Structure formats: structure tokens, C-alpha cells
Amino acid sequence: MTKGTDTKLGILQIGLDMASRLGLEAVSIGELAKAAEMSKSGLFAHFQSKEKLQIELLEYAADLFSRNVVAPALKKKAGIDRIRALVDNWNRWTGQLAGGCIFVAASADFKDRPGKVRDALLIQQESWLDSLRRMAQSAIKVGDFRPDVDCDQFAFDLYSLLLGFHLYYKLLHNQETRRRQRTALDQLLKNYR
Amino acid sequence: MTKGTDTKLGILQIGLDMASRLGLEAVSIGELAKAAEMSKSGLFAHFQSKEKLQIELLEYAADLFSRNVVAPALKKKAGIDRIRALVDNWNRWTGQLAGGCIFVAASADFKDRPGKVRDALLIQQESWLDSLRRMAQSAIKVGDFRPDVDCDQFAFDLYSLLLGFHLYYKLLHNQETRRRQRTALDQLLKNYR
DNA sequence: GACAAACACGAACGGTCGTACTATTATTGA
DNA sequence: TCAATAATAGTACGACCGTTCGTGTTTGTC
């Protein structure tokens, strides 16, 4: 029982890396098996279809994301500190995987591919935006944000910033990316203050 | 001479639409031929490889982008008007293609696929960011922006905003996307004023 | 209307895709 | 320790991939 789970987790970790680089749809069973050093059919048996593999990859990533990005930020003091921690964690998350954030990659891949994979992705993204919204709400509560700020707008603004960071960092390899992000984040927080 | 060019342009237009939806790498010769209602080999003869097809698609898109997004904005009065026009044009560009901006799709697809396609994409993206930079510069000149604004930072900020818009609009199908974008753009312009 | 050039087609190649089956080997619990 | 079960490998499949080749059809020019 435990052996199989171990193998599966190993597969998912390698698959996560591949998906972040090439996109979720471009992860083929054969290539993944080669990378995991096992047979195609042996790997396939762990999932029952490519679609389920993709969904499990997203779920595995969502779990990691929740534990490494969102949860640690929630341990910080509510407000600006927490938001800054979240951004730091997101940067680390993005830096860990060779191709960057897998959800960004999957978003491009599945925005026009209806199905269960897209559904799972949408749920994760909505949950992520909800986290952002909550952080704005708690920032209001502790007085870091004005009481009249639009929390949905904050989620949009912050996620946009992270997407810009992602493109500058992962596609353009722009040296100033971190500085650009810091400047933009400072300004963003000031606007909401 | 003209027949071949016509056919090719037709192929590129259909390919552009497919690439915007599924990604540049996922456009297969066979599927594209089916959509263009011609034989696989007949279509293939117009390009000499899939790589060249992808590059020609990017060049075709870059030409359209330049003519429909950047150039019309440059006819507007320099400064805020021009920037707002650019954003409007970009929205229209993004709305025209079923899958949204092809460069956003291609960015995700080719960020970790070295080669001539990636090179062509990078050139286009740098040129795009340069256009944004210039618009900030001219906005300074006419007094719409403070004289000390960082034009590179403006390019980062504005492109981030557009990327956020793209995700909200094309993946999440968020109803408030346009309003979010307008609010963010107003704030951005105010910050640079 | 003849002729060369440009264009399009069908068939076929070796590969890889996702998936289905069967057989074999490891691991587990009693 | 041994049967039960889980995990992996092997092989084969039809479909599609990008690409090549030879042949036919259209086109523009004299």
C-alpha cells in the first residue's frame, strides 16, 4: 500500500516539473515514464487515463501550493506583513519549479480546453483569488488598508502583478524583475493604505 | 504568384486562431489542414517545417499586432490619451481571437523551449515592451507623467495589468474584468501623473 | 494553344501518442 | 511461510504526428 503511494508521489513530483516547463497537456506518458525511470505501462497503471493524471497533478500542486504558499503566510500577522509574506512565498514557489508556476502554465493550456482538468484548474484559481480577497479583508480589519477598499479589485491587482513578474522572470529572464515587483508592490500597498 | 500568397494568408489566419486557443505548439499540421480544407501535404508545402510555420505565424501575428494595436495608438495625441487608446486596441486584439492574445499563449508555450520560435517570440515581446516604454516617455514630454518616472517600470506595470485582464477575461470569464481593468488603469495613470 | 512554373494532392514513412490487455515480479498481512 | 494482492513490465493496438516523394492539376506567359 505504501510502496505504490511513494512511487506515485515521485511520479507526480517529476510530472509537476515537466508540466511547469512544457505545459500540462504536453506531459506525455512516455516521456514522464522515461523521466521517472519506469515503464510506460507501469506508470500508466497508477492513473487510469491521461486526464486523471493531469487532474492528480493539479491536485498535488494545489496541495503543495496551499502548504508552502498560503498557509505560512496565514501564520504571519494579518495585514501588510501577511501580504508581503504571501508574495515572497509565491516567488519561492515559482522559483522552485523549473518552468515556474504550474497554474500559470495550465491556465494558458486549458483556457479553451473544456473538461474535468479545466474544471479542477478553475476551482483552484478561484480558491487562490479567494485567499487574496481574505487577506485584503483582514488588512482592513487591522487598519493596514482603508475600510472602503474593494477586496476583489485587490485580488485582481495583486494577481496581475504576479503574472507580470512571472513573464519577466521566466520568459524574458529580465534581471530587474525582482526590483520591478518590489516597486509595484510598494505602490500597490500604498494605494490601498 | 498571388494564388499561393492568398492561400498562405488564409492558412495563417486560421492558424492564428487555433494557436490562440490551443497554443502555438499544439497546432498540428493535420488539424490545421483540416480547418483550412486542404490536404496535409499541400499545406505543408507552403512552409518547410513545423518550426517555420510557427515562426511565420508569429511574424504574421506581429504584423497584425503592429498595424491594429500599436500604430493606431501612435496616431493619437501623445500621453494619457495614447496610452488609453493602446489599452483599448489591445483589448480589441485580445477579443478578436477566440483564445485571446497569441503572444500570451506562445509565451507560456515557449518559455522553456529553446529555438528559433522562442527567439522570434522574445524579439516581439521586447519590441512590445519598447513601445510601452516610448509611450511613457512621450507622456513625460507632454506633461501627463512626472518627469522622473521610470519608463521601464511603467512598461512592467502596464503589461502586468494586461496579463491580469487576459486571465480574468479568457480563463475565468469574470464578468467584472473590464471594470477591474479600468479601475486599475485609472489608478496606474494617477500614480504616474 | 503550348509550355514551364507554381500549386495541390494521396500515399507512405518511421515515430510517438494514449490505452488495453496479459504476464511477471514485489510486497503485504495472516 | 504462503497465499493474496499490489505494482510493474511487456507487447500490441489504432490514431495521429511531422515529413518525404511522386504525380497530377492549375496558372500565367509567349
Topology:
Two copies of one chain form a homodimer.
Chain A: H1 2-22, H2 29-36, H3 40-44, H4 50-74, H5 80-96, H6 102-110, H7 116-141, H8 151-171, H9 177-192
The structure holds a DNA duplex (30 and 30 nucleotides).
Structural account:
- 2 copies of one chain form a homodimer.
- The first copy, chain A, has 193 residues and is mainly α.
- Chain A contains 9 helices and no strands.
- Chain A has helices at residues 2-22, 29-36, 40-44, 50-74, 80-96, 102-110, 116-141, 151-171, 177-192.
- Chain A binds chain B through residues 21-23, 25-26, 98-100, 104-105, 107-113, 121-122, 125-126, 150, 152-153, 156-157, 159-161, 163-165, 167-168, 170-172, 176, 180, 183-184, 187, 191, and chain B through 21-23, 25-26, 98-100, 104-105, 107-113, 121-122, 125-126, 150, 152-153, 156-157, 159-161, 163-165, 167-168, 170-172, 176, 180, 183-184, 187, 191.
- Chain A binds a DNA duplex (30 and 30 nucleotides) through helix 1, helix 2 and helix 3.
What is the gist of this entry?
The structure is a homodimer of 193-residue chains. With 193 residues, chain A is mostly helical. The first copy, chain A, has 9 helices and no strands.
Element order, helices and strands of chain A? HHHHHHHHH
Span between termini of chain A? 52 Å
Name the shape of chain A in a single word. elongated
Biggest interface between chains: A-B, 43 and 43 residues
User: Level of helix content of chain A?
Assistant: over 70%
Largest sheet of chain A: none
Using the CA coordinates, give the radius of gyration of chain A.
Answer: 18 Å
Mean pLDDT of chain A: 97
Structural class of chain A: mainly alpha
Count of helical segments of chain A? 9
Low-confidence stretches of chain A: none
Question: Hey, roughly how much beta strand do the residues of chain A contain?
Answer: under 5%
Number of strands of chain A: 0
The oligomeric status of these chains comes to homodimer
